[in-house]
Amino acid sequence: MASRVDLHLHTKASDGALWPEELVKAADLIGIRVMAVTDHDSMGGIAEAQEAASGLAIEVIPGIEISANLDGDEIHVLGYMLDASDPSLQEALRRMREDRLAQGHAMVERLGALGYSLEWDRVMAIADGGSVGRPHIAKALVERGVVASVDEAFSRFLRRGGPGYVEGPKLTPQEAIGLIREAQGVPALAHPIIVGASDYRLDLERLLPMMVEAGLQGIEVYYKRYTPEISASLLAVARHYRLVPTGGSDFHGGGVVADAELGGVEVPWETVERLRARKRGLTSASVISA
Fold it and tell me: Mean pLDDT over residues 44-73, rounded?
C-alpha cells in the first residue's frame, strides 16, 4: 500500500516523466493525500498540479529542489510551502535555467569529443520544455545505443567526475536556504545519504551546523532504499539539530536512475503538520522583524 504522504516528487517541469496533471492523478489513484512537487530548480509544474488537484481529495504542496555545491560536494535543498511568485525566487530560477542549459550543452559537447555525438535539439526535445538535466542526456545516449540504460549512462559518463560530466555554477547551501526562506518557504536537506549505483554520504557533522545557522528547518530521513538503521540514524540527527524529519520517494518515472515507486516510501502523517508549524513560525518571525 502506498504512503498517504509523498514529499519528494518530480514532473516534466524538470526531469520527471509525467506532466504535473498526470502525476497528481496517479498519486490520487493510489491513495496519496498530501504530495509535494519538488522539481529541480523549477516551480513550473506547481500551478498545473494544484489545478489538477482541485476537486480531488489530495493536497499539492508547492515545493522545489535546489541544487547547491560546497567544496565540491553536491547538495540538494528542498523547499516546502514557498511562494512561487516571489520576485527574488523567480529571478534566481531564471538564472538557474540558463545555467542548466549551458551545463547541459557543455556535457553534450564533451560527449561528442569522446566520440559519442548527440544532437542538442534531441536532448531539448526529450526535456520537452522542462529544466534540462542529466537524465535527458542519459536518455539521448540510450536512444543512440551508446548505453543500454539510463543507469549505465550515469555510471559510465554522467556521474560527478565521470568523463562526460561538466560542473555548472551552483549556489552555496546557505544561499539556497536563504532563497527559500525569502520566499516564505521551509528549507530541508535532501537525501543526505544515497544508496545505489552512486553511493554517497554527506559529512553532516561539518555541513549541518552551518546550514542550521543559515535557517535549515528539516532533513530527509525517509527515502528510497533507506534501511531502518539508516532512517534511525538520521532521525537521531534530526532530533539533535531540532529539524523536521521529512521524506519521500523522489519519484521521477520513465527509467530514471534508482527510481522508486510513487508513494513507495512511508512518510509519517505528522511530518506535514510539523512542516506547517515551522511555516507558521517562520512567517510570524518575518512579520515581527519587518
Answer: 95
Rounded-to-integer distance, Cα 12 and Cα 93, Å: 16
Q: Are the CB atoms for 188 and 244 separated by under 8 Å?
A: yes
Instruction: Please check whether residue 272 is in contact with residue 244, taking contact to mean a CB–CB distance below 8 angstroms.
Output: no
CB 228 within 8 A of CB 246: no
Give the residue among 75, 271, 275, 273 at the shortest CA–CA distance from 191.
75
Adjacency order of strands within the sheet including 34-37: 5-9, 34-37, 59-70, 73-80, 186-189, 218-223, 244-248
Under 8 Å between Cβ of 253 and 18: yes
The grid coordinates listed for 241 are: 539539530
Decide if 180 contacts 64 (C-beta within 8 A): yes
Given the DSSP bridges, would you call strands 59-70 and 73-80 parallel, antiparallel or unpaired? antiparallel
Contact 80, 64 (CB under 8 A): no
Of 132 and 102, more confident: 102
Please give the grid coordinates belonging to residue 222: 525517509
Q: Does position 289 have pLDDT exceeding 70, yes or no? A: no
The strand ranges marked E within 45-184 are: 59-70, 73-80
The beta strand positions in the chain, using DSSP E, are 5-9, 34-37, 59-70, 73-80, 186-189, 193-194, 200-201, 218-223, 244-248
Angle between helices 134-143 and 120-127 (to 10 degrees): 120
- pTM of the full structure: 0.88
217: which 3 cell numbers?
528547518
- The cell numbers describing 199, all together, are 553511493
What are all long-range contacts of 23-27, with beta carbons under 8 Å and residues at least 24 apart? 23/49, 23/253, 23/262, 24/49, 24/52, 24/53, 24/56, 24/58, 24/60, 25/52, 26/262, 27/58, 27/262, 27/263
